[in-house]
Design goal:
Elements lengths: L9 E5 L4 H16 L8 E6 L5 H15 L7 H10 E5 L8 H8 L5 E5 L6 H10 L6 E5 L7 H12 L7 E3 L7 H11 L2 H4 L7 E9 L8 H26 L8 H14 L5 H7 E7 L1 E3 L2 E3 L17 E6 L11 E6 L6 E8 L18 E7 L3 E9 L9 E9 H4 L8 H11 L8 H21 L4 E4 L6 H8 L10
Parallel strand pairs: 1-2, 1-4, 2-3, 4-5, 5-6, 7-12, 8-17
Antiparallel strand pairs: 7-13, 8-11, 9-10, 11-12, 13-14, 14-15, 15-16
The chain binds NADPH dihydro-nicotinamide-adenine-dinucleotide phosphate (NDP) and ligand LXAUTJHC.
Amino acid sequence: MIPQSIEACTLALFGASGDLALRKLFPALYQLDQAGLLHADTRILALGRESGEPQQHLAVIDQHLRLHVAADDLDDATLQRFSARLDYLSMDFLSAEAYPALADKLGRVEQLIAYFATPASVYGAICSGLAHSGLAERTRVVLEKPIGHDLASSLAVNDAVARYFPESRIYRIDHYLGKETVQNLIALRFANSLFESQWNQHHISHVEITVAEQVGIEGRWGYFDQAGQLRDMIQNHLLQLLCLVAMDPPSDLSADSIRDEKVKVLKALAPITAEQLGQQVVRGQYVAGSIKGKAVPGYLEEDNANAQSHTETFVALRAEIRNWRWSGVPFYLRTGKRMPQKLSQIVIHFKEPPHYIFAPEQRPLISNRLIIRLQPDEGISLQVMTKEQGLDKGMQLRSGPLQLSFSDTYRSMRIPDAYERLLLEVMKGNQNLFVRKDEIEYAWQWCDQLIAGWQRQGSAPKPYAAGTWGPAASIALITRDGKDWYGDL
Ligand SMILES: NC(=O)C1=CN([C@@H]2O[C@H](COP(=O)(O)OP(=O)(O)OC[C@H]3O[C@@H](n4cnc5c(N)ncnc54)[C@H](OP(=O)(O)O)[C@@H]3O)[C@@H](O)[C@H]2O)C=CC1
Ligand SMILES: O=C1O[C@H](COP(=O)(O)O)[C@@H](O)[C@H](O)[C@H]1O
């Protein structure tokens, strides 16, 4: 039974032969279909540059579905139903002449969703083409990240889209917001009165956000070398996570209430001056190493690499938020490619009790920690102090976890991919999990000053061996403050 709020729509997927569409978007749409969440009348029009028979392109989509959807989730009935929804049209998105044919193909559509799985440089042309062929009126547009390369280019992209579409119909994707565990952050913080009273500089000593990837750049040199880890991950995913951890409680769950609070955090981020860069930010680039016992090449040996590149594949930084809630609480952010394991987690370190009745030798050298594991092994663990069991132990304290593992607790439930949630929310017309223009712009403004500082310094990123936790300087960044990265093996 489809929830009534999910209406029929036509989804026009621009960039349908690209990596994102084939690896993530079509599989996510398939999963929605299998879960009974696509309206019977929903149609999907795949749009790509390559000509040829539509059947040929639809066969490629089918092959990728079989590759990227878990075998247990593939069934003939859904595959048939899903393929009956699909059609393909070849067009050059930059050519204004191509849009009347698109309008013809679409016919009369009540609700069009135009998903731009293309480089952001094409978004303006697509919006103009849609508008000039009478397709903008009932259309929601979905924009992939990164929006621009810096503040100036993001303003240009956002302006080009805003010429034809109001903000209420623009859905900017940050796929981390679609992850179940990231949404759980909102539930954890605002549905449990227990935490809110402790969620401030009086009780929290520091916060760590780690998004470590085991993969390298996956054949995306052309894109990645122009971007680097700061633009690719910090500007969007890590700053969004930081906002969700640090924002004040929104007055309700509406998109703008949440976005208003996130923007306040971004505005309160203390700038990091060129003079502070050396102490507060570490950039790294992986060299050859090994992951899970397998040798992997360095960044400069990747396919199509330019051996002179100074692009960073790792960033660790110490950020501060200048407001009453967070004054004096460092936020340590760290993200890198080719790290020992895939791991996204947030660790909230609470301060020690104001007065200890236990002797130093009776207690471990740690205080309470809340560990929010975003992926993999999704779950939440609160480390609390308890007494060691046993008559011989006396009042010897130990730290142990109060654990909520999502896979154990919701055993039979598959954790949906972020894109399933996000596509569903676009179909419902709900902008909660999408990023507003000003969030993107404040995030760029903060990142731009770091990039400008690096450019002024002209220094190369520090090397780290693939399969390690980044350059030694990233450890020094946190140990200088008397702290450690949680859980590094
Ligand atoms: N791949 C990923 O995991 C992620 C991607 N993104 C974002 O998603 C977007 C798409 O990324 P990705 O799929 O990796 O990129 P790809 O280069 O693999 O795909 C882009 C697609 O757009 C098509 N295209 C580009 N320009 C035109 C044009 N003028 N006319 C017709 N088709 C055109 C390309 O066709 P052709 O091949 O013929 O050039 C290609 O099929 C980007 O904005 C990226 O930053 C965001 C997060 C993750
Ligand atoms: O947006 C991006 O995210 C992926 C990491 O996403 P995850 O869901 O696998 O954690 C990253 O590999 C890619 O470089 C970046 O563009």
